[in-house]
Amino acid sequence: MTTRTTRSVLELPTAVDPLRWPDVARVPQAPVRGAVAWWLLRRAARQRRIGVQLPDGRCLVAAPPGAPVLRLHRPESFRQRVGAGGLIGFGESYQAGDWDAPDLVGLLTALAEAPETLVPAGTGRLRRLYVRRPPEAELGTPENARRNISRHYDLSNELFALFLDPTMTYSSALFPLGPDGTPQADWAGLPAAQHRKIDRLLDLARVDSGSRVLEIGTGWGELALRAAARGARVVSLTLSTEQQALARRRIAAAGLTDRVEVRLCDYRAVQGSYDAVLSVEMIEAVGRAYWPAYFATLDRVLAPGGRVALQAITMPHERMLASSETQTWILKYVFPGGRIPSLRAIADTAERETGLRLRAAVGFGQHYAETLRLWRERFAEHAAEVGELGFDQVFRRMWRFYLAYSEAGFRTGYLDVRQLLLTREG
């Protein structure tokens, strides 16, 4: 039996530009796989205690009190996309406005719990029908890497400034803990939490006055600024022209141009010898095939007695192996060429390819969930300004889905973020 519930008014794309979003504008036809997707949706909704609401307000699957609800606006388009494209189709269906959710994070969190159980045992073979390998044009070669980075980080400095805090730090913060041991996160405290994260990483690498520091992945320059304020001399590498320009302006405004050099340079091309090598959430952009080259670079430029301090998003090793050759929605639309490593993969690659050894790893994934929540809320508050910058409704929905999808991953523990220390033997 179906039940009727109240619908809310939601912002949906009025049109989809087929030149900008060809796979969102086009609805594929996959009737058999679409029927399977429809069956899997109902099964997953009952299993995960999620409601599914039809356009006329009736419930395909009734939601328990307080449970998240998936509201279908175009059910046929939804099931054709998911049937043809799996999880990529699920994301594209959201971009197109085929479905929505009053609590998007809650819905995605429920779906992210134990993802290996979403599909019944024995039906995994169906995955071959829609899973694709990442395009060769997005593999992390020196030629491709700059284009991959540009697609995300060169979108617009003004866009990122709308939802990042004044430090312009685009990685997990480290918040103070409350009496119950949970991160105490609010917008006013985000800059201090970002500085706490950076300072902890600098301390891990023992950066002080006179240190020769290499940073791989400049961002918008906050780590380089804080290292230089300690008296270090910093070379920072980026492949983003937008980030390089703004980081240089921020460094000049701080009066630290004599201590920081921001280079437009691939990590594989860097030369020199450094007491400390730091990299914050950059290994995820390297790609699994190039992790050996990445760690070989760290080893090559690290001075005797030096320390490598990384901040990295990680995932369970088994899930990393299962998805390592798979094209995903995130890779297609947000971070082309990337791949999230496992802690084991980091340790094994460093040991196999270099003299570096993993000495310490501290995780703080729930802090990333809170960081993403603050960014997501800020992005929603400034949606009109995002539109004024020229980003259409499909883009804005894509960005909301990306931030919510990532937050759900950290809330379930499927993803973690860690600060790592690597040194050589002896």
What does this structure look like?
The protein has 426 residues and is an alpha/beta fold. The chain folds into two domains: 22-129, no CATH class; 136-424, Vaccinia Virus protein VP39 (Rossmann fold, 3-Layer(aba) Sandwich), CATH 3.40.50. The chain has 16 helices and eleven strands. It has helices spanning 22-25, 31-48, 75-96, 104-112, 142-153, 157-163, 190-204, 222-229, 241-253, 291-301, 317-323, 329-333, 343-353, 365-381, 383-388, 393-412, and strands spanning 51-53, 59-61, 69-72, 99-100, 212-216, 233-238, 260-264, 274-280, 302-314, 356-363, 416-424. Strands 7-6-5-8-9-11-10 form a seven-stranded mixed sheet, with helices on both faces. A four-stranded mixed sheet has the order 2-1-3-4. A hairpin with a 5-residue loop joins β1 (51-53) and β2. The radius of gyration is 22 Å and the shape is globular. The model is unreliable at 1-9 (pLDDT under 50).
Q: Can I get a quick summary?
A:
The chain has helices at residues 22-25, 31-48, 75-96, 104-112, 142-153, 157-163, 190-204, 222-229, 241-253, 291-301, 317-323, 329-333, 343-353, 365-381, 383-388, 393-412; strands at residues 51-53, 59-61, 69-72, 99-100, 212-216, 233-238, 260-264, 274-280, 302-314, 356-363, 416-424. With 426 residues, the chain is an alpha/beta fold.
Form type: globular
For the record, the CATH class of the largest domain is: Alpha Beta
Pattern of helices and strands: HHEEEHEHHHHEHEHEEHEHHHEHHHE
Average pLDDT, rounded to a whole number, is: 93
Proportion of residues in β-strands = 15-25%
Which CATH architecture of the largest domain? 3-Layer(aba) Sandwich
- CATH fold assignment of the largest domain: Rossmann fold
> Number of domains in the coordinates?
2
Q: Which residue ranges are poorly predicted, with pLDDT under 50 across at least 5 consecutive positions? A: 1-9
Main sheet characteristics: 7 strands, mixed
| Sheet with the most strands: spatial strand order | 7-6-5-8-9-11-10
Secondary structure tally, helices: 16
Distance linking N and C termini:
69 Å
